[in-house]
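Work Package 4 report. The design task specified in the project plan requires that, given a folded chain encoded as structure tokens, an amino acid be chosen for each position. We show below one input record used in the internal validation round.
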């Protein structure tokens, strides 16, 4: 039964998060890792398959095959796919397995996903990743929620992860992340639009000088370049996250228009990068 022997971990989705975590988990003694990605078996998926083989990660022909018998099943897809993946996984998950949902989804999305997973007899762990993964790697701060949060954190932190249980109820961890994201992703969108408008009117110098006078601790030239790169690289994923933030706001009876506008701005920034590549 899953969990009765050495911990094994499976990933659904093997992009930046899956590859980064898998590399370090294997180095820290996890018994074995398998992965499945929707792109496996396609031309765009060859790079992901090669990365898995180089890391020593087994490939599954399907999510069910990759995750069979795994102690932990980590869903690391995109926010707009999080609920669908949980619903599909509910058909083959088994008691003793813990489904770790690290996707940046709305609290209500996580709650629905949790109900689907728990109906299978498996356990659901809400996991809110609080920063980009690439630099901190496995040590990235993750807020954990659900009845199994304490026990799962104890096991996974033993392999080098950085989970902090915040609630036994589903939704709180994701609310903490997405409320923060409204500010972070919103600032990125504002800074990119400001810098673009400044360049169009040749007023970058005086505008940034004025901003610096108000916020003297900030290097606005550097901030603008950094945020433009973030949006260009991760805008599609951030846009999906902000649409989840909009759902969170609407569920609380709040106006979601600003979050939707930020999602659109993130999407535009990503498309501009793609078009110019």
């Amino acid at each position: 039964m899953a969990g009765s022997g050495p911990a094994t971990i499976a990933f659904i989705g093997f992009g930046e998060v899956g590859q980064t975590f898998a590399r370090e988990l294997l180095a820290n003694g996890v018994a074995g890792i398998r992965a499945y990605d929707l792109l496996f078996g396609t031309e765009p998926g060859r790079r992901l398959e090669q990365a898995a083989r180089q890391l020593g990660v087994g490939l599954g022909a399907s999510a069910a095959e990759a995750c069979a018998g795994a102690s932990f099943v980590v869903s690391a897809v995109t926010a707009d796919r999080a609920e669908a993946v949980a619903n599909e996984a509910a058909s083959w998950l088994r008691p003793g397995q813990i489904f770790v949902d690290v996707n940046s989804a709305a609290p209500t999305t996580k709650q629905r996903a949790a109900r689907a997973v728990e109906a299978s007899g498996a356990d659901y762990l809400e996991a809110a990743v609080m920063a980009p993964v690439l630099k901190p790697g496995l040590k990235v701060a993750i807020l954990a929620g659900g009845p199994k949060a304490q026990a799962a954190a104890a096991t996974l932190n033993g392999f080098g992860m950085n989970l902090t249980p915040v609630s036994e109820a589903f939704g709180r961890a994701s609310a903490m992340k997405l409320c923060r994201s409204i500010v972070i992703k919103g600032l990125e969108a504002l800074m990119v639009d400001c810098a673009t408008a400044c360049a169009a009117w040749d007023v970058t110098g005086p505008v940034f000088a004025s901003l610096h006078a108000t916020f003297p601790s900030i290097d606005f030239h550097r901030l603008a370049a950094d945020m433009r790169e973030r949006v260009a690289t991760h805008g599609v994923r951030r846009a999906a996250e902000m649409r989840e933030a909009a759902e969170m706001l609407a569920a609380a009876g709040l106006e979601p228009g600003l979050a939707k506008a930020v999602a659109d701005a993130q999407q535009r920034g990503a498309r501009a990068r793609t078009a110019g590549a």
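Confidence is low (pLDDT under 50) at residues 273-277. Validation will be extended to a larger panel in the next phase.
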